[in-house]
Amino acid sequence: MTAALVATAQDIYSSVDISRNQYTGTARTMALGNAVTAVGGDLGAVNVNPAASAVYHYGQFVISPGFSRSTSTASFALTYSASRGLSDSDFFGAQSQYANNFGLPNIGASMYIGTGRDAGLTGFSFSFVSNTSANYLNAAQAGGINDETSISGAFASMAFGIPEVDLQAADAVSNYNLNTVAAYRSYVISPLPYANDEYYGAAEVFDGSSIYTGGPLNQISSQQTYGVKKDMEFNVGFNFSDRWMLGVSLGVPHSSYEYIERFVESAHDYRDFPLDDTYLDYITYQYKLNRDVSGVYGKFGVIWLPTDNLRLGASFRTPTRYSISEEYDVYQSLDLKNKTYTEDSEFGEFEYRLRSPYTASFGIATTLASRALLSVDYELADYSIMKYSGRSREFEARNVENSLFGGLQHALRAGAELFVTPEFALRAGYTLTTSPLRYYDYGNGGIVSADNFSYSDFKTGRLALGTPHAFTDRTQSASFGFGYASPGSFFMDAAARCTFRPKYDFVPYADYIFDEYGDVSVPSPTVRVNGKLWEVVLTFGWRF
């Protein structure tokens, strides 16, 4: 479960998002489910196995425009039984959202140079290729009517204990959460009459002794993410007697990522929310994050043909050293019947580094009478070695969190290709990827995950963890396509892929109503999102 209200984004979920790879490549490799570790011969396969460039005795130039469409269905759950937890029956009002994007998933060129020898090193290749390795496109929205909690109440709870004079100070954003400062400056929260470090929200009523939500609120929560990660690889491949192909690559990934989170709550009946000489209309909250990522890694690969019809392949990708720069800001507004207050915070900036997992891929492929190809890949990545570094003191806790709750990610890929004629081929592929996150049992059916982990309790020994268990989330994709190769140098491929993303729960604002034992008595709303990503790619290529 992903909680909002975080001013910076350096947590295990961000490190997984930055590190994960789902290659698009050329239309051929995408149609084959990227099960190309042992196949090679395609510039889209270089990102999977750098030995791919040395398979054929010719050079290539390819360019692959593409189209992406994200679709999602999101449902809203109001308060629910904290002891029982959430079930599908708690969610209602499913809403559909979509987002589109055009791009260039692949472009590259290679050159093959023969040595003139019949045995030993018969040739080597040089290539440069840019392949999309992650697509962040997503949009989701859901809402409902809530009469028990409010985002303004959550902000008021966050401000508890902070003297009002500190929130008025010019450097308040340097000492306190951006959300808290923006809520105070936009009058979304106000101090209680008798205390200067206790607050109540604009959608709450203070009757002199207690604070409660004034009445039903129409609440809408939305999320949008945009951006792609691209890997540029500089590759050298070596061909030994058409039996052994070796390759090495220097990879330079880069991504620009944008995340926008928005929450609006409005009075169902404005008379329930009297504020001074007027009434509440609505409250708006927006959090925006822009992240630029660049890195470097090395990759080594081999393809071996023990027979003419059998291929074995393996590749290893070193951990990537990422440099990350983030900018974020918070916007809040309070709209009353006769006036409006707004606060658009100054941009926060943060820079840090991340070491991502290593990746190992293994593949086997076979050809059948030169008419068909079957290929299967297995890929392994170890997310427990993810490590942040930089100036933040919080990275010690974050790195412990990564090592405890990051685990092994397994991916199984399969692809098939059938040549209907020497010029025309049909293709299909499938990919199954497990979650790299894990949790620990905590008795009475409870679990400890990255969401509720207390580093201080763990460090002092108050929290003892047992055996780790992998989450059962799965990401699956199915693809299909076709290819045409002319008798000359031109070829064209087309492919479509649908990726079924695992569902996730999103909490728009933190829980803030607790019982006498410190347990949540009235949970905040939760949004449950089910989504798919559709991708279509056309590849145009020339051999020379």
* Helix count, DSSP H or I runs of 4 or more residues: 8
Number of strands: 30
Number of domains: 1
Poorly predicted runs of 5 or more residues: 1-8
Strand order of the largest sheet: 2-3-4-10-11-13-14-18-19-21-22-26-27-30
Strand content: over 45%
Q: What structural category do the secondary elements indicate?
A: mainly beta
Main β-sheet, in a few words?
14 strands, antiparallel, barrel
CATH superfamily: Outer membrane protein transport protein (OMPP1/FadL/TodX)
Report how far the terminal alpha carbons are from each other.
Answer: 52 Å
SSE layout and pairing:
Elements: E1 2-3, H1 12-19, H2 27-31, E2 60-77, E3 92-114, E4 121-135, E5 138-146, H3 151-158, H4 164-168, H5 172-175, H6 178-185, E6 189-191, E7 199-201, E8 204-206, E9 211-213, E10 217-240, E11 244-267, E12 274-275, E13 278-307, E14 310-317, E15 321-336, E16 340-344, E17 348-355, E18 359-368, E19 372-382, E20 387-389, H7 395-405, E21 408-419, E22 424-434, E23 438-441, E24 447-448, H8 455-460, E25 468-470, E26 474-485, E27 490-507, E28 513-514, E29 520-522, E30 526-543
Parallel strand pairs: 1-27
Antiparallel strand pairs: 2-3, 2-30, 3-4, 4-10, 5-10, 6-7, 8-9, 10-11, 11-13, 12-13, 13-14, 13-15, 14-18, 15-16, 15-17, 17-20, 18-19, 19-21, 21-22, 22-26, 23-24, 23-25, 26-27, 27-30, 28-29
Offer a few descriptive terms.
single chain, 544 residues, mainly beta, Porin, 14-stranded antiparallel β-barrel, three-stranded antiparallel sheet, 8 helices, elongated, disordered N terminus
